[in-house]
Amino acid sequence: MVDINDPKGYEDKKSRCLAAVKDADINNRDREAILTLYELREASGEFEASTQATLLTNLKRVAEITEKPIVEWEHASHHSDHTEFFASISDGSNPNAPDDGYSDSYVGNLRRSVSVFLNHLDREWNEDIQVGQPSDGQITEEDCFTPDETNRLFAVTDVRDSAIIAMWLATGQRLAGMASIYAKDVTVQGNRGGFNLNPKAIGLKGAEGYRPLLWSTPYVMRWLNQHPTYSHDDPAAALFVATRSGPNYDRGDPLGPSGFTKMLKRACERAGVSQSKAQTHRLRHTAIRRMIRDGLSDQWIKYMVGWGEDSPQLRRYGSLKDKTKARDIEEHYGLTPENEEGDHRLFNSCPACDTSVAELTEASYCPSCGLPLSHDTERMEVEIENRLYANGDRIDDE
């Protein structure tokens, strides 16, 4: 059964990576230094299990394929073991690398882990080496679901799966976040709803606290009314659970990462949406795109999706923001191409009361029941702040 506090199994992965370093065919001095670094980071309590696992895996790989132990690397203007190593695994000249070398993104990941390791070894010359930011690349329109595609997904999914898709598109949570929410931590009052992230969950990268459900509230409420085990059988049930028993799981077990992925693949197949889009992170991308288009501030986007204030991740969506601005300018002057999709609304009618909103221009709320239909409202920020102040927390203005 999936552990709701660790739905992606990061703790098990970390343990396996640690055992792999201990058993690896690497220089003993490298091994001892890697394990010392790991233990210091563990003792600090500041690092996620997933981060620790990645560091162990990357340092183990570098230690395996370097001809000279990392602890013996030197760096000077006339010669650099660091430069030579990373050049060799990029161009394929390292005998342990593929003929055409490793990808830029993989080499970048190794470089960042090695930089942490060299700082641990007090190699002052490491400061002279530019590691750079993660080369995650820009998010484009093609990475996201279109409004037509999301409407088709809703048309073919049941109550549980519609609630999952709606909540993802409205709130932009991580997969680990979606899989670790307790049903008891969801609150609904009228057409307003919200949830608290699981404070014990692994893989949220520091995200915590309350988030509003916005327009996904009626979807989630309908699912809670049909939840198979909450609250009569299991008051501590996960929000999203298996609705039937299978070979390796029982009805009411928390839905794990593979369950979310299978759900989306099944929905895309039924809706005629390309299987290349059947990836849960695309729902998160789509949510963030809509937050940008709806005019939500960078500060509130980061809060909603669980990024720290200093996170550079929002920059990846710059192309979406720029493209949207360019399109808006073209529309203002009547220059929108005929084949350009001009309608970005998700609904023709309110998900809660079925009132038609198709004729309304960029409606932020349903005119009948007041359900939030977008992120572009001061009332949304007031709702979050009221909840945060009630909990003794706050977000400072920029």
How is the topology of this model organized?
Elements: H1 10-23, H2 28-44, H3 49-65, H4 81-91, H5 104-120, H6 147-156, H7 159-171, H8 175-179, E1 186-189, E2 192-196, E3 210-212, H9 217-226, H10 257-271, H11 280-293, H12 298-305, H13 318-332, H14 378-390
Antiparallel strand pairs: 1-2, 2-3
Helix pairs in contact: 1-3, 2-3, 3-5, 6-10, 7-9, 7-11
Give an account of the 3D structure.
There is one protein chain. This protein has 398 residues and is mainly α. The chain folds into two domains: 10-128; 141-390, hpI Integrase, Chain A (Orthogonal Bundle). Helix content is 45%, strand content 3%. The chain has 14 helices and three strands. It has helices spanning 10-23, 28-44, 49-65, 81-91, 104-120, 147-156, 159-171, 175-179, 217-226, 257-271, 280-293, 298-305, 318-332, 378-390; strands at 186-189, 192-196, 210-212. A three-stranded antiparallel β-sheet has the order 1-2-3, sandwiched between helices. β1 and β2 form a beta hairpin. It is elongated, with a radius of gyration of 24 Å. The two termini are 43 Å apart.
